[in-house]
């Protein structure tokens, strides 16, 4: 036997022993309960009960599919997926079914074999399939003798194409259990109708309070009034949807879980919905199942089903969360009602359950002794707005239920947040109060209070000639607008509005409509003291920006034009500019879409206090209308993640996965995965979100080669999925967004974990950079910085030197800077090294233009003559894109010493 074949045999034996070590109780429950003999056939518990060499194959789940991607090309049997199934009964017909697909055609084999008396192997089913588009596969077989188990194996080596499986199932075709027993026979079995116990450990068991106390996995998990066993509602679960409720169970106890349910009688595959009682261990991504039962196509009327199970005698608190969960893997619709979960003592199914512990919730929350408006114990996140200029940090106080302890970490500054923890012997919950600083709008003009023919207060004409044009407020289309008409060529025209100087970040919004493109309107923001423009937007023949109107025919700066094919006269266009005065840049949104980012100012403007709206001097034929002009300083918005920019190193960050590493590299997260290993699971904890509030997760990511990445946001310290999204990162720096709104059933959203699961490269080491992680409320007008920093300054060194001829004897500073190209591609780069005096003025500058290979380190030298007293002089280093003023890198400064 070859060495490779030996390794496979040992792996199979190990997998068999592992499955058997789970205990015969699980197999017995399968054999005597539902008839399902495949363990974890929906892969909801990851690879539990399956064997797979993850060093050769990556595994991930999304949207109910389990996807397997070969990392190396081996022979067919050396790369395989499989498990040891539950028991099979003699003379019972079974249906072996599953869904499968592949991104491109590939062959695959699926074997089901078993050992019989005498040590011989028999083949129960063998299928050779060509996978492609999604397809449901099904085959029947009948064992000729009772089998303790069978071996399900899928060899797939020799082909590097990925494939996906869903809902792998082996069940009796008739819907009965092995041995031909009718699941409806016997007391308490499916099909019988015992009266459910009055007492239950579940909250809202009849769904009369909507989804209160339940957590949904998908939008098809709702409380419905269309059908009910009793009362006015039931739980309605649609195909490929599910949810759960967390419960508290005691060790060494016997419990009974039951529910009334019915299906629509239609669906796909096995056409069942499964009710389970599960638990999870801390640090284990997979859940364990005490037991389960199904509702199938024959259960079209409300039917009662239940299962009895025992909790381990040595179960301790550290075993973590237990929960009742429901998932419909085949039924188009299932309705469930009147859930019961009660402790069984001496066969009495109606024993009074233990009284649940007092919930860990606050009863009151105050800021500076004033109650927070609309406080709700079920709401864990609050926003408290303060006027800009406030320096005193408010004090937060809170009260809780008797028996609970409250600790408060007050905000350390403004803006900031106070963290409130309420705890008891069983655990703790977290509340958060965010303090924001806001100020009123600088301009807020819709012209509604201005009389027709006049101008609003503070708006003045630019010229003095009464024939230059018509500028006035008019009534039109049921409201009032500002009308601008230029009649005289080569003369000052338009309107100006003065306002308080703006030196920070602000938004500038307006609506504009032109009667035709020859209007060539100009909107300017500028500084009256220096008479320099920050920006000049020209709308005509496609939007152009930062163009001086009088020099309209000049050659445009590359990228400084938006060619808008939808530009139609007499249609309103909505503009939003996000102006960053400190960085001398701005962004343009047109009709809600980000068009350009980080556009540089025209002049060296450190404040803006004037707005002008007019026309190109020679544009005299048409009219421009303006409405809803608003300028609003940006609020100090709280980022709902901590250390998303790696400014505090790797605080709150962690990584797991074979061959995966995470490091803080130049202020960004560097992910490394060894060839053929992974995936890398990168986690950021400490985030907080609120139920019903819409959020946008933003981040930048790039890699040494294209890679599939799954992003997930989960509450309850990562246990309860809120949102997941699959992206593909490339070698170019990408900006990605994930928008989500936690529903009313989201668990502990104030303890949210964000996870990036990155699949590397099968043939070589993979490197990627993750940075600029922002979790903002979706209405926060803060744009993600453009990820253009390809180059990092690794180090700056200075030494004293003495010049040779012709400057013999002159002392100077020899400066060397190491730059790191992190872009995964060649870069034509301008390296800049500057000497600046204590005021920040550039005394001398050295530039070098050269091409750097991917991941190359480049050392650049410069020599500067400095005065004898050089206190406060510093060296600055950065890299630029040739022919453009935008940077490849952040600016890094170092002292001369």
TrEMBL record:
<feature type="domain" description="CBM-cenC">
    <location>
        <begin position="638"/>
        <end position="748"/>
    </location>
</feature>
<feature type="domain" description="CBM-cenC">
    <location>
        <begin position="36"/>
        <end position="154"/>
    </location>
</feature>
<feature type="region of interest" description="Disordered">
    <location>
        <begin position="448"/>
        <end position="467"/>
    </location>
</feature>
<dbReference type="InterPro" id="IPR008979">
    <property type="entry name" value="Galactose-bd-like_sf"/>
</dbReference>
<keyword id="KW-0732">Signal</keyword>
<dbReference type="InterPro" id="IPR013320">
    <property type="entry name" value="ConA-like_dom_sf"/>
</dbReference>
<dbReference type="Pfam" id="PF02018">
    <property type="entry name" value="CBM_4_9"/>
</dbReference>
<protein>
    <recommendedName>
        <fullName>CBM-cenC domain-containing protein</fullName>
    </recommendedName>
</protein>
<feature type="domain" description="CBM-cenC">
    <location>
        <begin position="201"/>
        <end position="313"/>
    </location>
</feature>
<feature type="compositionally biased region" description="Gly residues">
    <location>
        <begin position="176"/>
        <end position="191"/>
    </location>
</feature>
<dbReference type="InterPro" id="IPR003305">
    <property type="entry name" value="CenC_carb-bd"/>
</dbReference>
<feature type="signal peptide">
    <location>
        <begin position="1"/>
        <end position="31"/>
    </location>
</feature>
<feature type="region of interest" description="Disordered">
    <location>
        <begin position="170"/>
        <end position="199"/>
    </location>
</feature>
<keyword id="KW-0378">Hydrolase</keyword>
